[in-house]
């Protein structure tokens, strides 16, 4: 008899072959598990190049909505190429699984950083927010709305450079002024206009960026309550408090992003020009020790 765990493992072969590019990968260590995907470190045996292999069992993809989401994720992600977006290398399938080969982000996501550090310093926030904004600027210039920007989807490489990933809820704006009406899933930092189903666009990402910046600087999310219902109520009323210990430029930038009316939120280009970025130290790089302890600020 084999246990369920062993059975599961068998379904993800140790040697993975991509018939299209004729590449062969060896499955190495387990990296993490998401809603549907399991992620492994994989190595191209011809080039020794290491990647992240996001592997989704076809058994789990029974509903047509799930299949649709997966193919949307792939078709959007494969069209993107940017320093601050997780690189998409290739994808293929066999009878058991779908395999997505991605740039490996060895330092996990900003979620783990947040859990370990809670509130981070202003220079660190500047360092990360600048990169996140450059990534989102690229997405918006390609008419892509990510729709689920959150700490867990902001991956980190060995230089602590941010890579935006997980395009499972992303959407493409097809014509100027289009407002999306539906969203199949539950974004973490959900904007009020999604909750009220008023139609939404790029501005929902700006809202999420406000939530991300708040969470990084305060150490907890802006609308957190003990129930989702109360959290949604607060979001709709845009009811949050910023600790007065934050400096003025940070308070101002968060306030601009967390406005109930989408049309009043600034674009990414505007945010990149905000005085928050010129009002203090912008580190050229951060040491890896910042994943666990605050850098010295003297
Ligand atoms: P899902 O979309 O099913 O939620 P995720 O995208 O969250 O799956 O990925 C599942 C796990 O794999 C997470 O633990 C995440 O940290 C890890 N992961 C995903 N992409 C990468 C990557 N490019 N590099 C390193 N780890 C990754």
TrEMBL record:
Q: What is its EC number?
A: 2.7.11.21
Reaction(s) this enzyme catalyzes, per UniProt = L-seryl-[protein] + ATP = O-phospho-L-seryl-[protein] + ADP + H(+); L-threonyl-[protein] + ATP = O-phospho-L-threonyl-[protein] + ADP + H(+)
EC primary class: transferase
Chief location bin: cytoplasm
Localisation per UniProt entry: Cytoplasm
Q: Which keywords, in A-to-Z order, does the entry hold?
A: ATP-binding, Cytoplasm, Kinase, Nucleotide-binding, Repeat, Serine/threonine-protein kinase, Transferase
* Every Protein kinase domain range: 25-277
Q: Name one GO molecular function term.
A: ATP binding
- A GO CC term assigned to this protein in UniProt: kinetochore
GO biological process per UniProt: mitotic spindle organization
- Protein name listed in UniProt: polo kinase
Source organism per entry reads Danaus chrysippus
